[in-house]
Amino acid sequence: MNRMKHILTIVMILSVCFSINVLAQQPPVVIGLQGPLTGAEAIEGEMAKQSVETAAKMVNEKGGVLGGRMIKIEVVDDACQPRAGALAAMKLVSMKEVVAAIATYGSSVTQPASDIYEKFKKVNIAYGATVTHLSERGLQYFFRTCGRTDTQGIFFAEEVVPYFKAKRVAIMHDNTSFALGLAEEARNAALAVGNIDVVYFDAITPGESDYTVPLTKLRETNPEVFYFTGYFPEAGLIIRQAREIGIDAVFVGGDAAINEDFIRIAGLEYAAGCYMTQEALIEYFTNPEAMEFKAKYQEAYGSLPSSPWPVYAADALMVLAEAIDKSGSTDSEALVNYLKNEMTEFPSITGPIGFDEKGDRVGTGINLYVVNTDGNYSIVKI
Amino acid sequence: MKIIIEQLLNGLTIGSFYSLIAMGYSMVYGVMKLINFAHGDFFTFGSYLGYTLLVMGISYVTSTLGVWGGMIAAMLIAAIGTGILGIVVERIAYRPIYPAGRLPAVVSALGASIFIQNAIMVIWGPRPQAYTSEVIPGYILNIAGFRINILQIIILLLSFLLMGILYYIVQKTTFGAAIRASALDRETAALMGININLIIFFIFALGPALGGTAGVMVGMYYRKISFIMGWNFGLKAFTATILGGIGNIPGAMIGGLILGVLEMLGSTYVSTAYKDVFVFLVLILVLIFRPTGILGEKIAEKV
Fold first, then answer.
1. Nearest to B82 by CA among B62, B52, B55, B121
2. Does A118 contact B at CB distance below 8 Å?
3. Residue A29 and residue A73: Cα distance in Å, rounded?
């Protein structure tokens, strides 16, 4: 009798173990992340990976999706180059288990990549690609959690320039899709506003060390506001070299210029007093999702993401998890339907998220930031 | 007028960087007939060594030696460190395959370039680093409306000094004569009792050392350094080498300076966007009309 009891107990323990095993063996839901892990923007890719993993942890700790399936991330590198981006997208769509992609950071990379995702009917959510025309191509499966450059350009022309009571504006970009796009939006908006003279509009070549020639030309046009729409490594060099050759216009950077590295390269004596038009950084959010994200990220990596884009990647993961869970499916059509028609004001890390027919996020705010003398940023009230 | 003088000075400064790097290319090519594509990455490595010493060891180096002492120490140590790297790379990547001919050596040089570049990325991280203003203060002089960066003057003087020393060694000393003899004909020079291994050792230490020093200067002047910058500077310096006459040391100096000034004036008066087009157009023209470069030796000498 005693022996029977023992056997029964063992069987019961075994069966419990077995059933747990069955639960744990439910295949994970794999979501792809395409980002620049190497190349000049490698730091953005690294932070995006960390952010998405943090967000996945948040979802998984609450029990995953579809009744207990965990989220798994599959990362591919696109080096922020269009050709590598197309290859990375091909790699992700060729993996059968990948249900959707978070792709990608650069606008010029997102363009070919999103075409491939479209062709293979995979939902893809860009997290740093802000060029306007990306969502004007009639794509079905393309979304983005970041804003568009046209809102930023309009903000620059309608709010920032009047704030400085300026008339003469110089706009400089670096010929990448993103920077050129933002520069053109800003110029068009300035022309539309009237009363603003765009006295300088030209490009520099990114990745170089010496920008004194274009800056000398810019100096001769004597602007009051100098808007640079390129990326932070160049922005840091440019503000330093501009001040050294005697340009004293108000320096305003676009949303790729804000970064702690901008201050390190420019030096605090030149960086202080520079302005940026920018999506809100994670440190300014206080909603519960953001607080949880910040705590988890800080615990794992020691500091917060120094630019807003990685957090939009994390947002993309939250959005995808929600869509998969609520629609009860990993099928692309069901996800698109849910994202476009049923998701409104989903409480994500950077605030409520919904998508319009084109896949653009509904409701993102742009702010004007200033670099303080202690090297931190604060929002300028306009 | 003001612009042209400012741009001439800028052009000379950037040209002196090209010259310093170009001399390493030229020396190695002269003796080994090898285009050392890893040379641009030696330059990057030197820049990061200087960064490590100045910025990461900031409290120690600048507090004991002062700002200028710290800069000189950084350049010295970068020169020594890069020289050692040069020797190591020669031993590992080039020496075992010299017998296989010149093409495998060039391929190996490309491999070494990619390896060093990625090693730098792994060690110091992918983000661009900066020589921060705490260690390199900015000194802008305002003389009669001209804004002149004191660092520019120092860099110019220092590179001319280094180039002068190298020129003296190569042209006026017995050892220099041995280098020139090896450049002319390595086998015969060896038969005449010249220690070829010592010559190779010397050029592979000195060329990278000059490149490494240039790396620290670039860091001090522009502040921003990144692990991929060696390619751009290396390519320009290589063009300078061809322009001056590959294998010719004064040629490398002059080629670098001409290229720097051409680049600056070209982008001021033609277009910034075509800056590199301008530089490589010069390269193509030189290759078509004077393949031996401005100061290149006559081909007949080799026959």
1. B52
2. no
3. 8
Beta bridge partners of A352: A347
**CA A67 distance to own-chain centroid:** 29
How many Å apart are CA A240 and CA B192, to the nearest integer? 55
Residue A233 is nearest to which of B224, B232, B272, comparing CB atoms? B224
Strand order, beta sheet including A71-77:
A71-77, A29-35, A98-103, A123-126, A142-144
A-chain residues near B126 (CB < 8 A): 38-39, 42-43, 46
Written as six digits, the tokens of B233 are 């500077």
Q: Which of B128, B147, B228 sits opposite A261 (nearest CB)?
A: B128
Q: Which of A261, A201, A255 is nearest to A237 (CA)?
A: A261
pLDDT of residue B301: 47
B6 vs A205, A216, A268: nearest CB: A216
Contact A121, A98 (CB under 8 A): no
A329-358 per-residue burial string, b: 16 or more CB within 10 A, e: under 16 = bbebebbbebbbeebeebebbbbebbbeeb
The number of helix segments (H) and strand segments (E) in chain B equals 11, 4
Q: Give the H or E element holding residue B190.
A: helix B186-191
- Cα A64–Cα A67–Cα A70 angle in degrees, nearest 5: 30
Do the Cβ atoms of A212 and B3 come within 8 Å?
A: no
| H or E element that contains B51 | helix B39-51
Which helix (H) or strand (E) covers residue B69, if one does? helix B58-89
Cβ–Cβ contact B273 with A under 8 A: yes
DSSP state of B297: P
Of B140, B226, B275, the CB nearest to A244: B140
Give the minimum alpha-carbon distance from A209 to chain B in angstroms, rounded to a whole number. Answer: 6
Q: Are A228 and A276 in contact (CB under 8 A)?
A: no
Residue A82 structure tokens: 């269009």
The alpha helices in chain A, defined as continuous H runs, are 2-24, 42-61, 82-94, 107-119, 149-155, 161-163, 177-193, 212-220, 232-244, 260-266, 268-271, 288-301, 309-327, 332-337
**Residue A18, Cβ neighbours under 10 Å: how many?**
10
DSSP per residue, A184-208: HHHHHHHHHH-S-EEEEEEE--TT-
d(CA A227, CA A183): 8
Largest alpha-carbon pair distance within chain B?
A: 61
Residues in chain B closer than 8 A to A371 (CB atoms):
none
How far apart are the C-alpha atoms of B217 and B151, rounded to whole Å? Answer: 9
Amino acid A206 reads: P
Q: How big is the A-B interface in CB pairs under 8 Å?
A: 92
Q: What is the pLDDT of residues B204-259, one digit of tens each?
A: 999 999 999 999 999 988 888 999 899 889 999 999 999 988 878 888 999 999 99
From the number of C-beta atoms within 10 Å of its C-beta (0-12, 13-18, 19+), residue B110 rates as: middle
Distance of alpha carbon A298 from the chain centroid: 19
Chain B contact for A272 (CB, 8 A cutoff): no
User: In chain A, which stretches have pLDDT less than 70?
Assistant: 1-2, 4, 8, 10-25, 363-365, 382
- Picking from B220, B222, B274, B278 by the largest number of A CB atoms within 10 A of its own CB, the best residue to mutate is B222
Tens digits of residue pLDDT in B153-178: 899 999 999 999 998 998 899 998 99
State the complex-level ipTM: 0.78
Joined together, the tokens standing for residue B268 give 């001021």
